[in-house]
Amino acid sequence: MYTVAELAKLINGEVEGDPNVEITGIAKIEEACPGEMTFLANPQYERFLETTQASAIIISNDQKASGKTVIRVPDPYLSFAELLGVFYPPEKAPDPGIDSSAHVSENAKIGKNCCIGANVVIGSDSSLGKNVIIYPNAFIGDHVVIGDDTTLHAGVSVRYGVRIGSRVTIQNNSVVGSAGFGFAPKETGDYEKIPQVGNVIIEDDVEIGAGCTIDRATLGATRIEKGVKLDNLIQVAHNVVIGKNTVIAAQTGISGSTEIGERCMIGGQVGFVGHIKLGNGSMVGAQSGVPKSFGDGSKISGSPAKPHREELLIQVMQKKLTDFYKRLDLLEKQIEEYQKKGNER
Predict the structure, then answer these.
(1) What are 273-288's pLDDT values in tens digits?
(2) Whole-angstrom distance, CA of residue 150 vs CA of residue 308
(3) Sheet containing 36-39, strands listed edge to edge, beginning at the edge strand earlier in sequence
(4) Among 6, 61, 66, 298, which residue has the least CB neighbours within 10 Å?
(5) pLDDT digits (tens, 9 = 90+) for 181-197
(6) How far, rounded to the nearest angstrom, does the alpha carbon of residue 261 sit from its chain's CA centroid?
C-alpha cells in the first residue's frame, strides 16, 4: 500500500488534492474502484474522468480534472507503466543452473549465473553471456552467440549462426534464423531452392513477441537493430533491416530486403512488399499495404498505402459514392427528358 504522495515521488509527479490517500492497486479508468489508481492518456477515455471510482488519477500537465486527486506528469502512459512495476513486480527469475534434462554441447560456452531449463538443447560452439535465462524446450543451434542478461522463453528456436545481443527478450515459440523464402523457377515448371547462407543479427535491448519468425539472410544478415520492439506473430523475411527503436504491432509481414528506418511506428497487419525503404520516423496505419518506398517522416495508411491525409479524403469520398450515384442517375434522366422534348419540337 502506498500514499498518493509516495507514488508521485516515484514518478516525479505533482499532486493536486489529498496526498495522503492510500492506494492498493492500479486499474483501468472505467473499472477502477475506491483505493485504486488509474490513468488517462487516450482522449477517447476522457468521458470516464468524471465517473471513475478511482481514488487518484495520473493525468497530463494540461488535463482538466475538477474535484479529483490527481498526479500530474508530462507523460501519463509512461508513468503508469513505471508504477505497474511497483504494484506488480515481474515474475521471479529461476535460479541459476543447468537442468539435468538439458543437452548442452561439450564445447558450448556458458557464462556465469545462467539458467538452462528442462529439455533445452544448446549446440556446438555456441556461447551464452552471463545471467542468460533459457526457459524449457528452447533450442539453440550451433555457432549461436547470445549476450548478457538475455531471456529466451519456452519453445524459442534460435538456428545456426544467429547472433543475439544483451538484454534481449524473446517470447514463447518464436523462431530466429529459419531459412528465407527463396526459390528460383525452372523451365521444367518446378523450383530450385536458393540456399540461405546468411544469418540473423539481433542487437541489444530488442524485444520480440510470441510466435514471430525472423528469417536468415540469403547472403549477409537480416538485422534487427538496437531497441526494436516487435509484437506477436510478425514475419520478418530474409535480408530485412529494421532500424533502431522502431515498434511494430502484431501480424505485420515484411518481405525480403526491405529496409525500415529508425524510430518508426507500424500498426498491426501491415504488409510490406520487398526491396523498398521506409524512412526514419515514419508512421504506418494498421492494415496498410506498402507497395513502394517512402521518405523520412512519412505518415501513410490504406492499401495501397498513401499519405494519410489523402487516404482520409478517399474514405470520406467513398462514403458519399451512393449519394453521388443517385445524383448522377437523376441528372442523366433529366438530360434524357430534355433531349426527348427537344426532338419532339
Answers:
(1) 999 999 999 999 999 9
(2) 38
(3) 14-16, 70-73, 56-60, 36-39, 25-26
(4) 66
(5) 999 999 999 999 999 99
(6) 15
Other Cβ atoms closer than 10 A to 33 = 13
Positions annotated as catalytic residues are: 238
> What fold does the segment set 2-87 form as a domain?
3.40.1390
State the pLDDT at residue 174.
98
Collapsed DSSP state (helix, strand, coil) of residue 27:
coil
CA–CA dist 254, 259 (Å, integer): 9
User: What is the domain partition of the chain in residue ranges?
Assistant: 2-87, 97-308, 312-345
Q: Are 311 and 286 in contact, with CB atoms under 8 Å apart?
A: no
Which tens digits make up the pLDDT trace of 9-29? 999 999 999 999 999 999 999
240-266 burial: b if 16+ Cβ within 10 Å, else e: bbbbbbbbbbbbbebbbbbbbbbbbeb
Strands 183-185 and 235-236: unpaired
Distance CA 256, CA 219 (A): 12
C-alpha cell recorded at residue 260: 525500415
Phi, psi of 26 (to 5 degrees): -125, 140
Predicted local confidence at residue 345, as pLDDT: 63
The C-alpha cell that represents 170 in the structure block: 524473446
286's CB contacts (< 8 A; 6+ apart) are 249, 267, 268, 269, 270, 301
8-state DSSP, 294 = B
CA distances to 176, 223, 226, 309 from 261, rounded to whole Å, are 21, 12, 12, 21
Treating both helix axes as pointing N-terminal to C-terminal, what angle do 321-344 and 308-319 enclose, rounded to 10 degrees?
A: 50
DSSP code of residue 281: T
Name 320's Cβ contacts closer than 8 Å, sequence gap at least 6.
Answer: none
* Cβ(226)–Cβ(232) below 8 Å: no
For 281, how many CA atoms within 13 A lie in the half-sphere containing its CB? 3
Residues in Cβ contact with 148 at an 8 Å cutoff, skipping those fewer than 6 apart: 111, 129, 130, 131, 132, 166, 167
Query: Which regions of the chain are under pLDDT 50?
Result: none
Helix (H) or strand (E) segment spanning residue 338: helix 321-344
